[in-house]
Structures are given as C-alpha cells and as structure tokens.
Amino acid sequence: MRHLVAHRKLGRTSAHRKSLLRNLCTSFVLNERLVTTLPKAKELRPFAERAITLGRRAYSARQEGSEQSALHATRLLTLFFFSGNAGSESKQHNSFKERTAGVAAVKKVTGELAERFVDRPGGYTRIYKLGPRKGDGAEMALIEFVENKPKKLEKDKEKDKDKGKTKAKTEKTKKK
C-alpha cells in the first residue's frame, strides 16, 4: 500500500520525471494548451499552477517596487522550466544564442500570464478528457489555462471577414 505517498511515478526515475514535468510545463506555458496522457496532465496541473503562483508573486512584487522579492520569485520560477542547452557552447560556433524556451516561458509567466491571473487565487488550469489514443489505448487529455482566449487562425479571420461582407450585401439587397 502507498499510504501518504503523493504523485505518480509515470514509469520513470525521479530525474527523468522531473525533466519530463519541466519540459511539459515549458511547452504548456508557451502554447497555453497541451495534449498529453491523462496521468501526465494530472501531474502537470499542480506543477504548472505553482509556477503561475510564483509568476504572480514576482509580478506583484515588481509592481510594489520590491525588486529583491521579484528577483527571488523569478529565480525560484526558473526551476519549473526547461533550462535550455547550457553546456553546449563551443569555441567554433558563435557564442550569441537566441533565448531558449525556458527563458521565454519565465518571461511569459511573469508578464502576460501574471497580468491575466492577478485577481485569481488559484485554479489556473483545466483538464478535458479526450478519450483513448488509437495506437495503444492510453487515455488522452487536453490541459489548458482557464481564461484561455483561443487564437483564431488567419484562415478563420478571413472567413469571418468574408461572411461579414456577404451578410452586409444580403441585408442591403433585402432592404431594397
């Protein structure tokens, strides 16, 4: 029996599990939604929500003018994201690198997401069950932020514009 044992092992060692959660959290924050297996989504939820709470703490400390508290919260927040390719720099290649996904995720959490959830005390994510995967029957799930504004594709925007034009034309012809 597993009394007082929290979290799922997900069939991985502790280091692999930690790396998996960091990678999932980085992708989740950058894309604002993620399709994965249900157990992974259930493990990701508290992990990501702690990260958002730290981002909110950094954002509010920065608003109050306490740079030291904001820096501390931001440094704690970096533990929740993929750090990038830190040791892969060589003398042959250009030392200038673009920002890694983890840096972009930290920036997004302390900026855009912290502003969005500034008044929300918790519960930033939701999980939708999608049913079994075709290949192996694993239960799939979609995890996304609660106040997620779905991004319309350019094709959808063009269709909406075209529909608006045709509706306006038909209304004008009906009035005549």
- Give the neighbour order of strands across the main sheet: 1-3-2
CATH architecture: Alpha-Beta Complex
- How many E strands? 3
The fraction of residues in strands falls at 5-15%
**What do the pLDDT scores average to?**
84
Given this structure, which CATH class is correct?
Alpha Beta
Tally of separate domains: 1
Question: What low-confidence regions span 5 or more consecutive residues with pLDDT below 50?
Answer: none
CATH topology: 50s Ribosomal Protein L17, Chain: A
The value of Rg in angstroms is 21 Å
Secondary-structure element series: HEHHHEEH
Helix content: 40-55%
Structure in words:
This protein has 176 residues and is mainly α. It has one domain: 50s Ribosomal Protein L17, Chain: A, CATH 3.90.1030.10. It is 53% helix and 11% strand. The protein is built from five helices and three strands, in the order αβαααββα. The chain has helices spanning 14-31, 38-64, 67-77, 101-116, 154-175; strands at residues 33-37, 125-132, 139-145. A hairpin with a 6-residue loop joins strand 2 (125-132) and strand 3. Helix 2 (38-64) crosses helix 4 (101-116).
